[in-house]
Amino acid sequence: MFSLNKPGLLGVDMGDDAIRVLELARRRGALQCRHRGMAAVPPGVMFDGNVDDVEALARLLRQACQASGSRCFRVALAMPASSLITQVVRLPAGLPEEQLEILVELEAAQYMPFTVEDANLDFRIMGPASPSGLEKDGGELDVLLVAARRSSVQRRLDVAAQAGLQAVVMDSEALALRAGMAHGGWQALSDGAAFQLAWGLALHGFSR
């Protein structure tokens, strides 16, 4: 079970057909589903992964949380691939973090159809561009850029806030699905496939 020093985390899947929530617990060394709930999403609330009606979706999220029986208020959310811009770029190795962030913004500006000011931007260093890249002068790193319109991210945050929840993670749906499928615990659920994404997001409550 969760310790008192480590609060739980709900994985929240906001889909066009339904909103799903799932909370994991560790029992005897294995992760298991502690709570799960779902609420159907009617037409006009979500479209192609985008939130059209924040207030309606917030009500449905509250319903899903109540149906789950979870008292957890910290949530992990995700952005659909259609709302994200991802690109791997190569940047010089050995730069201070401040300079790396500046270069990331400059690189990202080349791939986004909107300004950096209108974007939520994140990046992750994937490693050397080549196995021996860091051993040479001027070695390079492969860096994964991820960007989304700030307004699209904010609408999901607003849904969580209006539902009385605290969003602490914003992931990519593709990455969360990959994490959930790699763990595989969702397969034990009778409706497991429907909760793959929520399971992957709930894993943020544990070390991956």
Description:
The chain is of the alpha+beta class. It is built from 5 helices and 10 strands. The strands form 3 sheets. Strands 3-2-1-6-10 form a 5-stranded mixed sheet. The chain has a 3-stranded antiparallel sheet with strand order 7-9-8. A hairpin with a 3-residue loop joins strand 1 (10-14) and strand 2 (18-27). Helix 1 packs across helix 3 (150-162) and helix 4 packs across helix 5. The longest helix has 15 residues, at 54-68. It starts with 9 loop residues before the first strand and ends in a 6-residue tail after the last helix. 30% of the residues are buried. Residues 1-5 have low confidence and may be disordered.
Structural key phrases:
208 residues; alpha+beta; three-stranded antiparallel beta sheet; 5 helices; 10 strands; globular
Helicity, as a percent range:
25-40%
The helix-strand sequence is EEEEEHEEHEEHEHH
Physical arrangement of strands within the biggest beta sheet? 3-2-1-6-10
Strand content: 25-35%
What is the number of beta strands? 10
Uncertain regions spanning at least 5 consecutive residues: 1-5
The number of helical segments is 5
